[in-house]
Amino acid sequence: MQHVMVDIETLGIKPGSVILSIGAIDFDPHTGALGEGFYVNIDRELSKAAGLTTDTSTVNWWASQGKEATQALLDDCKPPGTAHRTFFDWFRSVGGKYIWSHGVNFDVVLIEAVVQKLGGSVPWKFYNTRDTRTIYDVAAVTPDRAKGVHHFALDDAKRQAEAVIKSYKVLKP
Fold it and tell me: CB 3.0 to 4.6 Å from 143: which of 35, 57, 147, 159, for a disulfide?
């Protein structure tokens, strides 16, 4: 499948912020098929050592989030370069071409900023980025946040992909 939905959890909202986790799922908006997905946690201390930043308000926001979501961020953390390379290898392995995220100015932008800081490059073309908020608005669709763990990146990516699939059904019956 050529479409990949990505969701990240971070310790800031600006490019160059520490990314805590990456969740992604490949999907086909035409058939409604969902793949198995991808998930990785990223070591926050190694990210800070690499020059990535945190934002106090985001750190405080995490303190008010559900235990399931925050606990999931602590398991099997990888160095930032390893985590991103593993994600990119997975992206290529599923035939990724289009990268979707929930908004044009967050997930993909923050991933690209980290990768640039680490001296790498992303496996997608800038013109193959896609935005969920626009398609949801045009199709009058909302992701079902009641399913899964909210702010667990893989669950959020699944809900967002499902809503894109629903949007395609509305817009391309």
Answer: 159
Residue type, 166: K
* Residue corresponding to tokens 């961020």: 73
CB 26, CB 60: distance < 8 Å = no
Q: What is the DSSP string of 50-101?
A: TT-B--HHHHHHHHTS-HHHHHHTTSSEE-HHHHHHHHHHHHHHTT--EEEE
Nearest to 160 by CA among 87, 103, 91: 103
How far is it, in rounded angstroms, from Cα 25 to Cα 91? 9
Read off the pTM.
Answer: 0.96
Give the SS3 label for residue 22.
Answer: strand
Q: Is the CB of residue 66 less than 8 Å from the CB of residue 150?
A: yes
Q: pLDDT tens-digit profile of 45-96? A: 999 999 999 999 999 999 999 888 899 999 999 999 999 999 999 999 999 9
Closest to 91 in 3D by CA, of 77, 101, 104: 101
d(CA 25, CA 167): 17
pLDDT in tens, 22-51: 999 999 999 999 998 999 999 999 999 999
